[in-house]
Structures are given as structure tokens and as C-alpha cells.
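Weekly structure sync, notes
Attendees: PL (lead), two postdocs, one rotation student
Agenda item 3: pending single-chain targets
PL asked that the sequence for the first pending target be pasted directly into the notes so everyone works from the same version. It is reproduced below exactly as submitted, 370 residues in total.
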Amino acid sequence: MAYSTPIINQGTQKRSLRVERSEIPDRQEADISSSLPLNQILCGDNLELIQQLPDHSVQLVITSPPYFQQRDYGAGMGNEPEVESYIENLLRLFRECVGVMKEEGSLIFNLGDKYENSSLLLVPYRFAIAATETGLVKLVNNVTWVKLNPTPRQFRRRLVSSTEPFFHFVKSEDYFYNLDAFMTSEDASKKSRTKGMNVGKRYFELIDQSDLPDEAKRDARLALARVIQEVRTGQIHSFRMKIRGLHAEPFGGQDGGRKIQLAKKGFTIIRLRGNALKRDVIETPVESIKRCKHPAIYPVKIVEEFLHLLTRPGDVVLDPFIGSGSTAVACKKLGRHFIGYDLNPEYCEYARNRVDEAPGETLNLFGMSS
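Predicted structure, written out during the meeting:
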């Protein structure tokens, strides 16, 4: 199956004629997938195209709609005269996305904000609130994209905008979530900063400065020496030490464990096993591609992170605003099926060529390379 052939399956039913996915036996999963325009970028109105997809057929919808009155995309959404009309149009598409998404699936929407009369409109958050108020979804996270190379501007009365939100919506509590695979490249690049000869030195100094009794100070030094040795021999990744009177008490949870140790011994040690906290932040530069006329290129790295987190190899991913094709490129690289829509024929053609040149292998219906 070629990645660049824009074929629309005219045999699929409109939404009003669909059978609910929950009523279809599991053995018909392949029949549903065979009706999908897998690994294709289709040029046309996304509201019309998405209605040709069966209900509950897509694992992940990830997209970045045109921002409100920010850039000229040639036509379509983003050119509304008022922000209320823009959000209303977004919600129309959003409801369709919810309909085609599996019960265990997710939706990721990225939006940028807009200044009007020198005041932020808070467009992304207005949309997120309106989306949750439909009653169709739950908002799991607001993941912040930190742009490492924001557009340099010399504002005199405000700071340069360098972040954008990615809203993660789900339909049910049983959504697929692979936390261990998320941000794997970032985790692998992080090195322990505590394995040098000076590890723990500041804690010895704090023990000496504390008001602990001499016996408690002695016990604290011995415990500290032991945990430093665990770090140096690779038994643990790093640690934190809290000393009564110098550090705030742990909060949350039950009154036990660390609080009891602080009260009785005067100190507590927290061993860290090397599992980095999965934060709601993705740091990556804004992408620019030579000879690409699209004014806002979606970073492939961001798409990859969400693919790791919310999909399995062979799953179907929909981007109703495919733009320059970044979602499709990430899907091809990581072995996921994609479906992309765009209203601009020039963007569609560029995205198809970009995907054809991208690394990765075409998948057949059952998720195997062909």
C-alpha cells in the first residue's frame, strides 16, 4: 500500500447510518480496518472526510488545528471573525473525533493563543473547557510544549511566548497508557549527577549545622555514608536526605514512614532508583524544513512521544489537520497506521512526498511490515 495515494473509500457509511462499534463482534475488526484509508493523506474538508470513518476505529487522534487569526493557511478554519465562532467550529470537529475514537483511545489537541487589544484571549483553555463541558470526554493532562528556540522578538511590555499546551482527552477510565515508553529518549540521555566524589558533602555540612543531639548526628552521618556507598556502587541512582529543623516535613499520604523517622531519629533518607518522573512537559525546538511552505510545522518528536505513550505498533492514528505531514512521518517511523486530512492541495502534496521520503516501512492491515 503506497503512502501517498489519496484514495477515499466511498463505500463507508455516513455517521448517521453507522452501527455502534460496541455492537460489532471482535471477528469483524479486520473488516472495519479494511474500510479505512490507511496510510493515506486525503485532500478535502475534514468534517466530510471524518464522517466516512467507522465509529470506534481510531486509537489516537492527534492534531494541531490552525490557530485563531494567527497565520494564513490558505482557507478553512482559523479565519473566523470571532473567537467564539472559531471554538464552535473546533467543537464540531472534536465531536466527530470522539465518535471515531475507540473506547480505550485518546485525543491530543494542540492550540496556540492569540493577543487581541494587547490582551491574551486564552483560546486554548476556552476550547479545553468547552470540550469537557460536552460531557463526552475527560481531560487527563495539559502537557506543555517548551519551545527551545522560540521566535526572537523584542517586546518591551511582555515576555516572548515560548510554550503551547497539548490537551489529552479520553472517553473512559480504561484508556491505553504506556507510561514506561513515554519520553524514552529523554530518560536515556539523562545521567546521574550524584556519582562524583563530592556526593553527599552538603548533607554532612547540614548535619553539623542542625540542632540534632550528638547521638542523632552520629547516626545521621553513618546512614549518610551508607547511602553514598550505595550510589557509588550503582545500587541506587541517587538520594535525598531530610533533616529535622532544616527541611519541611513530607506532605500528603498517611502520617507514617518518613514523618515517623523525622520525629524519632531526626532525619530520613529517600532512595531514588533511577526512574525519572514523567512530567507534563515536552522540550523540543520548533521545526523548520527547507522548501516547506507550511507556516507552522508540527515537531515530529512531540508526535513520537505521544505515540509511545498512547498507542501500540499497528494502531491507527488520525490527524484531521495533517499540514506538513509530521504526524504521518512519526507514524511511519514507529510502525503505526495513519490517516491525514488537509484542505490545502499544496500541503497535501508536500506531506505525501515528505512521508514517502521518511524512514520506516509500510504496514499492512494487520500491522506487519510489507
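Discussion points:
- Confidence is low (pLDDT under 50) at residues 1-27, 187-195.
- DSSP finds eleven helices and twelve strands in the chain.
Action: rotation student to compare against the earlier draft before next sync.
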